Amino acid sequence: MSAKDHRVAVGRELPVDASVAFAWVADPRTHPRFIPLTRMATPAVRGPDVGDRFTMVSGPFVGRGAPGFPDRMVVDSLERPSTATGRVGSTTVRKLGPVLLGDAGFDVEPLGPGRCRVVWWEDAYLAGPLPRRVTAPLVGLALRGMMHVSLGRLAERLAHRTA
Q: Residue 1: its pLDDT value, please?
């Protein structure tokens, strides 16, 4: 079984230009606005670039300062979409632990002016003594639900911006 066998992906069409959707999903500073139970633990003054490191913290009440589990990441790739040329935008991060390892990213496909499709994918597993083949399916199950809810929240926020 290859690592790709444990990749989970959730997609959603959004009523905004691909560049707008990409700005939201590629920039970890916006993630707490649409990913539940998440806050950014490392300050960032600008949008992401390849090589940037950041930490998100997830858990109940983290938005109020409660502790949660840290998810340390580094941006491995970043390519902005182009509606004019039909180029798909993509960003990939590598998860550095201490709880989750693996890769994750967003692909943003332009579908024309004012429309795009966002696909959030994760290939993550628990760091620790159990093998990846054991933990990846369980992590994927939890991630799929969270990703579905998060993309729904993103759609709501972006719809309010264009209304």
A: 45
